[in-house]
Amino acid sequence: MSTQVLTYLFVGASFALYIGIAIWSRAGSTKDFYVAGGGVHPVVNGMATAADWMSAASFISMAGIISFIGRDGSVYLLGWTGGYVLLALLLAPYLRKFGRFTVPDFIGERYYSQAARIVAVVCLIFVSFTYVAGQMRGVGIVFSRFLEVEVNTGVIIGMAVVFMYAVLGGMKGITYTQVAQYCVLIFAYMVPAIFISIMITGNPIPQLGFGAEVTDGSGLSVLQKLDGVLLDLGFSAYTAGSKSTIDVFAITAALMFGTAGLPHVLVRFFTVPKVSDARLSAGYALVFIAILYTTAPAVASFARLNLVDTVHNTAYDEAPEWFGNWENTGLIAWQDKNDDGVMQYGAGAALLPAKPIFDVDGTRGSHGERLLNNKSTESANEVYIDRDIMVLANPEIAGLPGWVIALVAAGGVAAALSTAAGLLLVISSAISHDLLKQTLLPRITEKQELLYARLAAAVAVCIAGLFGIYPPAFVAQVVAFAFGLAAASLFPALLLGIFSKRANKEGAISGMLAGLVFTFAYIAYFKFVAPELNSAEYWLWGISPEGIGAIGMLLNFVIAMTISHLTAKPPATVQALVDNIRIPGGAKAAENH
Amino acid sequence: MDTEEKSNQLEHETALNNQTLYWQANLKLLAKLLVVWFAVSFGCGIILVDWLDQFTIAGFKLGFWFAQQGAVYVFVALIFVYARQMKILDRQFDVGDDDSNQEPQS
């Protein structure tokens, strides 16, 4: 069977599975819809959390980015796993003890204020929507390359599937589909990684192969060889960093604290039966995540090595088939600067502007390459390669069989859909529960609330799909900033709510607003208002917009504590609430209220 | 104040005291684990990375290994250590939510 047919088969079968699970696990009550009935086993919840967490960015883009930036890519690995330690130690058990449905629920009750609840809802919607747009786009990329349908058709198919199980099943449907999606995505990630590790080093465990000797008889380890090859081509060494230490520090911190403050992850810990389960469940989640996150840097180094080997100094006519396939999707381009028909790969941007602009008539050059309207640069580099293709193209680059390639396509879709569904659920529950039931329409019955929750989920799916089809220029740029915003707004309010009895509503609200506004303004200034100034000499203390959330978070803490001490103590009932969530005993299942 | 009231109040204070001690033990444990968390990630993986790179472990420069592998393994271990230690504390102070020692809820 051809790769194409296999891909249809794998993706189709996985969709059938997800929809089957959705029908089997329909939500009957708001408790089912918001927290899956509150009886999810910690290991199951850990697996669902892992799928919820690992998005198209983790599956498709992360190894690709690390592949191109080497050691600087550690910020993602450290940031996106270290956050779970904070989550497990500082937030999850206490929020579980609190025992309600949503993150704004906690903020609204703890800070005895509807205003605080609304601010939390705004932060949540802002963070979640920027994040979900990227997922729909990821589905589109996979579809356009592997199923050869238009990106837009791909987005619509993805929307329809998410619609089925998020709207019908709510958290209950999502939990069990996420378990299935985790299995699909981790299998799809590991199989090619293991194959490639064996091919390059003879060691089947990528985490070890990463440090092992290359089997080409040179006696060099993978990383030594890669450092050498890259230095020869004019790049900096793979294992050396180019970002300043303070910037790496700040970006890692923003990603870590942001991870701990992400509502769609936090809400997963509302679904387990007990406080002790919440602690354990975070541990299992990180185990499941770590399997992918320790493999990703290995995949990144193997992919870079393979890429240089296959592309550099290869005649275009003799380039492998995958090169042409990806060129057709516009994610690879070649400009024959020295007119020798051979592809030279090296440091520096190949094209000006950096992204390829293909000739509209689709004219081909003398070797069959797609002609470009870009100007060429001084650099000898002739090849443009989009970072996002590294994981998807990796099995093809390594010459693995068709079923592995099909598997990776199904895995990429699973990663994108599972995260999109989790995000859509927190958006819809923030609207139906916090905005409608708790604020605007307190008289609605549970049945009506459930209906509103489904409606909100349906609307959110449609908006997310629109973002996927018409990606506003800013969306791609701000996805990475969702973390900075979560770190600067939600994390401090949650942490102080548990660990400080003195924190009051005045402090929390001004802290959240200050953190959000400061971080947003800094990002907006350097990304949209004055992008030409976006370089280290103009940054505050040398911290890039990606890392500024760490400073926004400190600002939030300082302001929240100062204002809390200047204003009245929280009422006795709230202090009693804090005492109550600090001990696990008597944790009740989430109840409607 | 009659005796029954007095003993009730005493019980209440003991419970509060017990809770405070439990919370302090929890904070102490948190502090220890977070020091390790900081040391392996921000410490070995970022601040000391260049200095650690002079050592090699299993084909990796040590700093690079911490940044791209080691820290993640330590993170996983930290959460399980925390879950285990807290279970012990829960039992010691009798504040756990295990079905075995759960107090009847109203």
From TrEMBL, chain A:
Topology within the bilayer: Multi-pass membrane protein
Regions crossing the membrane: 6-25, 75-95, 115-133, 153-170, 182-200, 248-270, 282-303, 403-431, 451-470, 476-496, 508-526, 538-559
UniProt-listed CDD domains: SLC5sbd_u4
Coiled-coil annotated residue ranges, if any: none
One biological process term in Gene Ontology: sodium ion transport
Pfam families (alphabetical): SSF
Keywords for the protein's UniProt record, in alphabetical order: Cell membrane, Ion transport, Membrane, Sodium, Sodium transport, Symport, Transmembrane, Transmembrane helix, Transport
InterPro entries according to UniProt: Na/Glc_symporter_sf (IPR038377), Na/solute_symporter (IPR001734), Na/solute_symporter_CS (IPR018212), Na/solute_symporter_VC_2705 (IPR019899), Sodium:Solute_Symporter (IPR050277)
Signal peptide (residue range): none
Localization annotation: Membrane
MF terms in GO: symporter activity
Cellular component GO terms held in the UniProt record: plasma membrane
Domain of life of the organism encoding this protein: Bacteria
Record-stated family: Belongs to the sodium:solute symporter (SSF) (TC 2.A.21) family.
The protein, known as: Cation acetate symporter
TrEMBL record, chain B:
This protein's name: DUF4212 domain-containing protein
UniProt-listed Pfam families: DUF4212 (PF13937)
Keyword Transferase: no
Taxonomic superkingdom: Bacteria
Keywords from the named record: Membrane, Transmembrane, Transmembrane helix
Start and end residues of each Sodium symporter small subunit domain: 20-95
Record field: transmembrane: 29-52, 64-83
Keyword Transcription attributed: no
